[in-house]
UniProtKB/TrEMBL annotation:
This is LysR family transcriptional regulator. It comes from the Bacteria. Belongs to the LysR transcriptional regulatory family. SUPFAM superfamilies: Periplasmic binding protein-like II, Winged helix' DNA-binding domain. PANTHER family: HTH-TYPE TRANSCRIPTIONAL REGULATOR YBHD, NITROGEN ASSIMILATION TRANSCRIPTIONAL ACTIVATOR-RELATED.
């Protein structure tokens, strides 16, 4: 397997057909077909399903596509990194963010990253925490912002803040004040399915305190969950920051969970290596700075920094 075969594969998938890829790469179509066949033989899997309208990527092809794109991006950055002078930082790094927190984190991190290291490139990918954990482990991410991750072999985890979870109800709910954790057993809940980080946190707390929760509906999308709650189909459990906008507009209502409180921990994960790339560590530090700045400014509603975090730059 070589870089040319990977580039051919990625171009074919993006274009949806071998003929379009041949035209884009200015290579004869039979030559591209031979490269694809050789790649499939080397890997021992079918990467593309051929049909009259072009090609469709298989499951194995999808796995290769993600890795091939990352390798090609890294390969493209080698020249600029080598040619750069000693005082210029170049390279490519990939950051993973969860959906709700990512709306706060990504713009701030990207703005600072571009200002500090204009010769470097930053790719941002979004996914739920369990998916981000998987991408970190298989090398598709360099740094990720995670909610309540388990210990991960080969991944360095840095707790950055804690958030208090709240019970979210439809607008106009009459309940006021905190709700006891054990009283959640009587509430019809809309929760994500396992292994979503919110579900892991809630189920772990329920097990510890002997509470049997009633998850009447499972929805993995946070925006869809909030829409279902607004529609009166049940309540849900989210961080205060995750629902701050809807609380401010009056679309939803919320009660703190107390006795005991339910706390979610935000953690920065990065690949642990004997010789880590400088830019990976710098990105992790930048993410920590920006999160701390968001908390201190009040933009990250309900967040409390873990003791010992440095002041934002």
């Amino acid at each position: 397997m070589d870089i040319r075969e990977l580039r051919t594969f990625v171009t074919v998938v993006r274009g949806g057909s071998v003929s379009r890829a041949a035209e884009e790469l200015n290579v004869a179509q039979p030559a591209l077909s031979r490269q694809l066949k050789k790649l499939e033989e080397e890997l021992g899997v079918t990467l593309l399903d051929r049909h009259g309208r072009g090609v469709t990527v298989t499951r194995a092809g999808s796995l290769l596509l993600a890795r091939a794109e990352a390798l090609l991006a890294e390969f493209a950055g080698i020249g600029p990194a080598v040619r750069a002078s000693d005082d210029v930082v170049a390279g490519h790094v990939t950051l993973g963010v969860p959906p709700a927190a990512g709306l706060l984190i990504a713009p701030a991190v990207f703005r600072s990253f571009r200002a500090r290291w204009p010769a470097a490139t930053l790719q941002i990918r979004e996914g739920i925490s369990s998916l981000l954990e998987e991408w970190l482990l298989d090398g598709r991410l360099d740094v990720a912002v995670l909610h309540n991750p388990p210990p991960l072999d080969g991944i360095a985890l840095q707790p950055i803040l804690q958030e208090r979870m709240v019970l979210v109800r439809a607008r106009g709910a009459v309940e006021t004040g905190p709700v006891r954790f054990r009283d959640l057993a009587a509430v019809p809940l809309i929760l994500p399915s396992m292994p979503h980080s919110n579900r892991r946190l809630v189920e772990r707390a329920a097990l510890q305190h002997g509470v049997r929760l009633s998850a009447s509906i499972e929805v993995d999308s946070i925006p869809l969950t909030k829409a279902m709650v607004a529609g009166g189909f049940g309540a849900t459990i989210l961080t205060h920051a995750g629902v701050a906008r809807e609380l401010a507009s009056g679309e939803l209502s919320a009660q703190p969970i107390d006795n005991p409180p339910l706390l979610s921990c935000v953690v920065i994960g990065s690949v642990a290596a004997e010789s880590p790339r400088w830019l990976v560590g710098a990105l992790a530090g930048l993410v920590a700075e920006e999160i701390a700045s968001l908390v201190r400014s009040g933009a990250w509603a309900g967040g409390r920094l873990v003791a010992g975090e440095a002041a934002p730059a």
